[in-house]
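pinned: reference chain
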Amino acid sequence: MTVLLQPFGKPGNPAGNRVLVRGEGVRVYDTDGHAYIDGLGSLWYCQVGHSRSELIEAVNSQMNTLATYNSFAPFVVDVAEQAATRIAEVSPFEDPRVFLCCSGSESIDTALKIARLVPQLKGDGQRQIIARRTRGYHGVNMGGTSLQGIAPNRENWGDLLPHVVEIDPDDIESAARLFAESGDRVAAVLCEPMQGAGGVHPPTDDYLRRLRELCDANGALLIFDEVISGFGRTGSWFASQTYDVTPDLITFAKGVTSGYQPVGGVLVSRVVADVLESDPGYVFRHGYTYSGHPAGAAAVLANIDVIEKEGLVDRANHIGDRMSAGFNALHGDGILSEVRGVGAVWAAKLAEGTTYERSCAIRDTMLDNGVVARPIGDSIAFCPPLVISDEDLDTCVDVMADAITKHPIQ
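pinned: its structure tokens
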């Protein structure tokens, strides 16, 4: 029995773990010396690959200079300010503010609080409704759990956040009905521009643009959860740039440091920042002990440097072209029933009638053959490091195809 209480694990049945001890490039290694191509980028985030000396040395240097200090007023750490500036520069916003924290879950709860704060500061206290989309995943803090569009993740936690309404993830008319019925009470819509953990679902045609128009027409904020899609994953720095729709708040984490340090945050557009800044005496009573942590900020700077130097944002589009071609060939052969994705994040939907148990069995066979992927319902998801080679991409596709044939539908 392991002492570690694993995330999304079975506390009463923790057997079957593969204990990882080392990583290099796009591969990780277990205690038995087995190597695995990291086809999921650990958990949707390792853009620059494992054991990059640039990030390790940057964090080590910062630890030797100022290992830790808070950024609560009246202090700010220089490297935190630098990291916020670099994030702002690659964002779709003009002159934004940047809040830093330690995870995507913290960034989501921060954005939700800001979304309700803004109307309060504007004297519009009735605006408290937050809309979520079915299939949406927004972390597991209390706010993010309440805004989960994946129903099982909301179960058994007791009463969750009030004033949350779910809308259809693909049909914009569902959102239009909400605004027609309660438009003067909607504070914000929370939306992954490309839904990730819910199964890798790009938006339907014109959905995001029309959602933006509905929010504008009704005085609501639009929040894009880019914890997975940010920092090059969709072939642009942010998916909002890929789809040419600009929200009011953007949450980020994961790829901002490629996971080398736990950093998340919220990009605050000028529309929102102007409200927060309007009263010089107002105190923003929100923040975390490790907001702007120096070692994390150093990792942000080094990570963005590597992404820029190696052209990894453009590389994501090449990865997408190659994975799409491989998966669509399998689709044409009848091995897959659907292919979904954008940039360097993809899902291969298995044959109709596939159970989650079959998807897990295919995942396990892939692991036995040296490839990490993630089963999500009846699909297998991939989100490889942006430094992955074409040869390794082809191996991921081939290993999955072979695993599928070994687990026919019963």
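why pinned: The longest strand covers residues 186-191. The chain has two domains: 53-309, 311-405.
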